[in-house]
User: What shape does this take?
Amino acid sequence: MTEVIKAKRKAAVLAPSQLACLSKLPTINLTAGCAHQCLYCYARSYSQNPGQGRVRLYENTLEKLRDELPRKRKRPRAVYFSPSSDVFQPVPEVLALAYNVFEYLFSNETGVALLTKGRIPDRHMSLLCANSTLVQAGIGITTLKTELLKIFEPRAATPEVRLSQAKRLIEAGVSTRIRIDPILPGLTDDAEDLNELLNAIASIGVKQIAISTAFLRPPIIRTLKGHVRDKRALDILLSHYESGPTLTMHGAGTSVIMPPAPLRRKIYSCVKQIAQQYSIATSICACKNGDLANGSCHIAGDWLGEPDARRQRFLFDSLDSVCRQE
Ligand code: SF4
Assistant: This one.
């Protein structure tokens, strides 16, 4: 059970994210905190996060949106959900608010860009599909390995549910991408497992993926150490960051610890190579991997321009042959 703390949002509801790739679209978090409780989640350490097992629901979001949107001099083409929470958390109050907010945006010809690891209820799915030209969806899937998902994404939807939701969206004409982010080095980057995942992704008609390894910060490391009971898995994961660089998130200016560049190059090249075999284009999250790639991974869809993975400059194209099982 998730405890819901109701709160009134005081600041503007339509606010751009600091991240470079989201800086040109307004974004909305319906909650502070996220009931999915992924252990690698950066948002768990945010000061407004109400803590384990709780979310703070901004119950006046729709009211503020009704006030702000008509007064915008330049109407946004779309709104992104959500930079530091998930809009499809398994919490009835959050889902009810999400439905009403989406309905209001669609009735005002405003699009919805979303990224979720959650279960999309039928009612919401029908609404999204009925407004397919106003929706661009990202479905996050990190691995098909159930044991790892139980540890790292304990309350998110199963990969089967996420894949079937992506399929339904695609069939309804919704532009839909898969985001394999975060890849957990040593745990979810095995070539055979990636091939199985990409095969499943290709089988539902996905043509675009975006990828990144997990990033760490001291509070994330503390969360992992406090909650991952499988110490072997934890040690494997953390060992891949011991000599990794501290990079600056593009736009946000905050620091993140990443695996060493050669390891990331190897992982990304491997994913890209397998994805190519399935005619899937790969983008790298350049906000987190500024030393390896530039351009946009189109986390919010193509509201701000057509996606073209070929235009993203991969700084490691010469390493495309490194994908192999070890
Ligand atoms: S679904 Fe996203 S926002 Fe929610 S806990 Fe997982 S990573 Fe964090």
Remarks:
- The chain is about 30% helix and 15% strand.
